[in-house]
Specification:
Blueprint lengths: L5 H13 L3 E4 L13 E14 L2 H5 L4 H20 L4 E7 L2 E7 L3 H27 L7 E17 L4 E7 L1 H10 L10 E4 H14 L10 E5 L3 E6 L4 H8 L5
Parallel strand pairs: 1-2, 5-7
Antiparallel strand pairs: 2-4, 2-5, 3-4, 5-6, 7-9, 8-9
Helix pairs in contact: 3-4, 4-6
Length: about 250
């Protein structure tokens, strides 16, 4: 077993603590190549987290082939919906949760990210119909979205190639927390932070001028979770195709 060299460790920590870190405030999170171990960016960020409800029961099923098929089907297309965006800065899977993090310097960018949540919500209808046709258990998810200014830094070990971006602020953690509220305690599947909602609601109204769009959302003010909005919005054309039998 290799021994940890704590004396070298002390030198590395002192190097981090004593060196100057330049925090650059700008509206957009840059590409990975712009990040170093001596800078950080404070920018507008939106995140989506999609969390499977009651996953512990699903994972405990003894039919591992069935569980594998369900989880692979779920993650495959959620990733496809999340990844197709020039503003994507990170995408991944954490246990039973799929997430995407985006730079969103303008309200129009935030609306585009919200539109992905509508696709995901509709996709879950397609997935559950396909699961039902194969006598597999249907699944529910919570879909959380949050927007905030985040401090983004590169962290890890610069000399061994193990590093990653760390998102410090409310966008990522809040989206994760909000996803745990979707499809739970009477909430609809889609859950948005107040900042996300304020920045995309006007654009959503413009797209549906004959609808009272604000009535699609339920306002919540919870002592623990703060203000958030829930909804069950779907993509009509996609949903009609599902209802019509998903024929080519």
């Amino acid at each position: 077993m290799a021994t940890y060299d704590y004396k070298k460790g002390k030198e590395r920590i002192e190097d981090i603590l004593d060196n100057e870190l330049k925090v650059i405030e700008q509206s957009e999170v840059p590409a990975d190549s712009a990040f170093t171990f001596t800078n950080g960016y404070y920018s507008w960020v939106s995140a989506i987290f999609v969390d499977v409800r009651d996953s512990s029961t699903l994972f405990a099923d003894n039919d591992k082939e069935k569980v594998s098929k369900i989880i692979r089907s779920f993650t495959s297309e959620i990733i496809e919906i999340l990844r197709n965006d020039d503003n994507l800065r990170e995408i991944g899977i954490r246990g039973d949760c799929v997430y995407g993090i985006y730079t969103t310097p303008k309200p129009s960018d935030i609306f585009e990210i919200a539109d992905k949540t509508f696709y995901i919500n509709t996709y879950m209808k397609m997935l559950n119909k396909l699961l039902q046709e194969r006598s597999l258990p249907k699944i529910k998810v919570g879909i959380g979205m949050s927007t905030a200014q985040e401090l983004v830094i590169k962290a890890g070990r610069k000399d061994v190639g193990i590093n990653s971006k760390v998102w410090i602020g409310k966008a990522v953690t809040r989206a994760s927390n909000l996803s745990s509220l979707g499809n739970k305690n009477g909430n609809s599947a889609l859950v948005y932070s107040s900042c996300s909602y304020r920045n995309f609601i006007d654009k959503l109204q413009e797209r549906s001028p004959k609808e009272d769009v604000k009535n699609w959302f339920t306002y919540h003010n919870d002592e623990g979770d703060g203000v958030y909005y829930s909804a069950s919005i779907i993509k009509k054309e996609f949903d009609n195709w599902i209802s019509d039998g998903m024929k080519d």
